[in-house]
């Protein structure tokens, strides 16, 4: 995962401006510690901080077409670049980089090529012949991108907010599945799948089709020239990623270079649910297992650094990002530069425990659509920035475009949680991999109840965060929160505490507006909170807030949350 910064159409093209661009680009060097590149054309600048994953020796950026009139800086991976190169056989390629196809696709098709890309990406492309430019972000927003505007009329693009927030008067998160064209001066959506309209699909459930689509999604993400592994929590999603990758590794090109035994990584407080389950999965599928521990205090000590890197004050995201941030540092120290991860499944299949309360299949499906559309603000942001903080790239097979299309075309009646039929959350996915002849996972892992990552690393992690926040934020501070923070006013001491840290690093109105707000229970959208009247009294994003559903749910008491109880 790399870092890009592009400034286009600024008034100043002096050496001082060039030096300023270099200085700002260095704020992204954690994303790409392997090389730095900068292309200047009159008053346009494209910079790049590279994390070398594919073609480490010759794929430095920015990248060009044959005569260098088209320049592109890219963050991401294009998994179908070999197939695209075959279509572009009249073009000369300078490198083995998967991203170089973008410059040549633009030459061949103009601005209408983005939907041809299969991968995760954000890029800025400059056509020096007329000084026009485009910027685009992948379908779901797996890679981060921000757009900003300077007082001098310049347009800025950056992988992280910290690279442009000081120099732009206004900025915002670049919308996933969109392209910006300087010729039109506006964003337009290039990604238009059938599910985006939220129309209720009717395709019958076919477990074989679903399973094969996921296996294909995992296989294409084994494209790498560096050591890699899988983040394994022991939950369903990461366990399936690891199980499929372990099976396919022997038949992949990467096995010739790095061996056929998969490496898996897990983190948690000692004795946490995830560590026990992850070790069992790793032993079952035969991976080289690496287990890391952290303490609540170590997590608390890292909070400021975590918030600086992930650029949000969202409570759930910070809770889950902190252990992922700590684990990524350990993984990078082992020489690993890329990992596969299980984000996206809960949004696609309605895996969060609050989906138990979905009143009908229509609302179930509409909520999954809302969740996928918001992934770039939550789990994609967490997975990308927590790992990129240490120069580690995370790839997410569940967010493969083809797999999403297949999964979201299934009649949502099949996804509904039906205890009377023996269907728990994500039953369609579990059933697709329930193979008695050649099992992917142990049965009890395959049917393990959903744990949010921030819960699974150890329940005392969230409890410890709340206790710490209670010591930092007084009752009076929270009572007056609406005067201090009128936008997205924090409603808990934990939320207030994170907000104060965020504002220290990112004090502008534009920065705080990049973070979503609204009530949430167990990661629900605000709309889904309406499914159960009791949830409005217990607005906590932890999975344990799904009262009557989670096996270790919070005990509901008037005025808040007190302790945990087991529910049969």
Automatic annotation (TrEMBL):
Q: What is its EC number?
A: 6.3.5.4
- Top-level EC class: ligase
Substrates-to-products reaction catalysed: L-aspartate + L-glutamine + ATP + H2O = L-asparagine + L-glutamate + AMP + diphosphate + H(+)
Record: residues binding ATP = 231, 267, 341-342
In chain numbering, the residues marked as site (Important for beta-aspartyl-AMP intermediate formation) are: 343
Highest taxon of the lineage: Eukaryota
User: Which is a Gene Ontology cellular component entry for this protein?
Assistant: cytosol
Its UniProt pathway annotation is: Amino-acid biosynthesis; L-asparagine biosynthesis
Q: What is this protein called?
A: Asparagine synthetase [glutamine-hydrolyzing]
Source species: Gossypium tomentosum
